[in-house]
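seq:
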Amino acid sequence: MNTVGERIKLVREELGWTQDKLATKANISKSFLSDVERGARDISSAYLLRIANAMDASLEFLLRGEEKQSKPEEITVPPELSQAAEQQNWRWDETLSLLRAHNSVVARRTSAVPKKPTVADWVELYNVLRNIYDDETGQ
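struct:
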């Protein structure tokens, strides 16, 4: 597998998914996905991350064709996030994406111990990210 597109297609087919199913799950257009798989278009990191998350695929594999041997990810959802998710009726994938986005930003910003987000902080972060996402997709 030489290209990112070929590796996306490989994982998609191993899952038994059509391009339509992956495009829907990753919230991208089928034509864009088709172009990427054929090598006719490059893909941004944001879209690659959407695809990887949708398929629960390794970014390392999609980018380089290499699998990192790692133990399964242990996920701990803070009680405040759990409470916000319950209040707002967020799906599990939305809650997990929000937690990952938060952890990614915190990991890059400082080495100091960050403040513990409140329920209101989680809702605000969700709304900010939703607005950015909606602007990006034209929704």
